[in-house]
Design goal:
160 residues; 5 helices; 16% strand; two-stranded parallel sheet; alpha/beta; 32% helix; globular
């Protein structure tokens, strides 16, 4: 059974989605590849207390690693990419090529980028920490402005 709630954040409203009480979605307003709202289930904030608490600590610069149970729904390759995203340390970045190398397929950087763009749990599974080979920002489902702001935030908070 799916449920959802909407919370405020420094990056705009975030829609949290749970399936049987386990977080399976975190979507920003106007996010590319955002599923239709009718798939989010009934409005109910009951399953999200821990998620909201950890997101508040993250946005306050007090939490650098999330410890939430997640349900990442995707292909086996997508899930492998998302697992690698979760291993990118707070305040750091990796390129699509570096992730492809980590997955044992150095020629898969394009496929890594496509999987990255389909990440259903933004921020918590930090797809914003992936950059282009030249070090520049590339696509981000939440928009490049948000990506830059998240990276700047983490780099600034990591200094303290």
């Amino acid at each position: 059974m799916k449920q959802h709630t909407v919370i405020d954040s420094p990056y705009g409203p975030l829609t949290l989605v749970a399936d049987d009480g386990v977080l399976c979605g975190l979507y920003m307003t106007d996010q590319r590849h955002r599923p239709p709202e009718e798939t989010f289930g009934a409005p109910d904030d009951t399953p999200f207390a821990g998620t909201e608490e950890q997101l508040a600590a993250y946005f306050a610069g007090e939490l650098k690693e999330f410890t939430l149970e997640l349900r990442l729904n995707g292909t086996p390759f997508q899930r492998r990419v998302w697992e690698q995203l979760a291993r990118i340390p707070y305040g750091e970045t990796r390129t699509y090529g570096q992730l492809a190398d980590t997955l044992g397929n150095p020629k898969a950087s394009r496929a890594v980028g496509l999987a990255n763009g389909r990440n259903p749990i933004g921020i918590i599974v930090p797809c914003h920490r992936v950059i282009g080979a030249s070090g520049g920002l590339t696509g981000y489902g939440g928009g490049l402005d948000r990506k830059q702001r998240l990276l700047d935030f983490e780099r600034g908070a990591a200094l303290f």
